Amino acid sequence: MFRSILFLGAILLTGLVIGCSATQESDIRKLLQIQQDAWNAGDIETFMQGYLNSDSLRFVGSGGEVRGWQSTLERYHRAYPDREAMGTLSFDLREIRMLGRRHAMIFGAYTLERENDQPTGLFTLIAEYTEDGWRIIHDHTSADPIPEIHQNLE
CB–CB of 62/75 below 8 Å? Predict the structure, then answer.
């Protein structure tokens, strides 16, 4: 009888963990969708709400490492000074891996469609669950040297 109760408890606990992970993944996908929509509306400030507003935020891209939320915001404004430079962003989320109850790794590809080019690349994000919901604490984004590279690998 005791073993049956333990077994039933383990099944219920497993179901809760799986359900929790599905909810977490859904919330993370929503976070990236909000960022994509904000970008495509030309709203870098709202896009930045997906990042943890902290000096510990780390962004790594072709320009090197940037630390802190404010510095990351300034970097985005320099790199994308107007709507034309921002283009239309689309994310291809390829993997969301939970690293515990409060942390997740997100791997994906991005495409920017602009009038004169279509930059693409890959990103790895680490997100943390905070009192304000999921926020990105680490962003490593790499632009493809030749835009067709990651498209040809799919």
Answer: no
Distance in angstroms (rounded) separating the CA atoms of residues 119 and 13: 44
pTM of the model: 0.81
CB 30 within 8 A of CB 104: no
Contact (Cβ atoms closer than 8 angstroms) between residue 103 and residue 126 = yes
User: Using one digit for the tens of pLDDT, what is the confidence trace for 69-78?
Assistant: 999 999 999 9
Closest CA to 73 of 103, 107, 50: 50
Q: Note the pLDDT tens digit of each residue in 101-131.
A: 999 999 999 999 999 999 999 999 999 999 9
Tokens (6 digits) for 78: 């320099």
CB 50 within 8 A of CB 27: no
Contacts (Cβ under 8 Å, ≥6 apart) of 106? 28, 32, 93, 95, 96, 123, 124, 125, 126, 127
Q: Residue 63 to residues 60, 75, 89, 143: CA-CA distances in angstroms?
A: 7, 9, 19, 10
Task: Check: CB of residue 24 under 8 Å from CB of residue 98.
Answer: yes
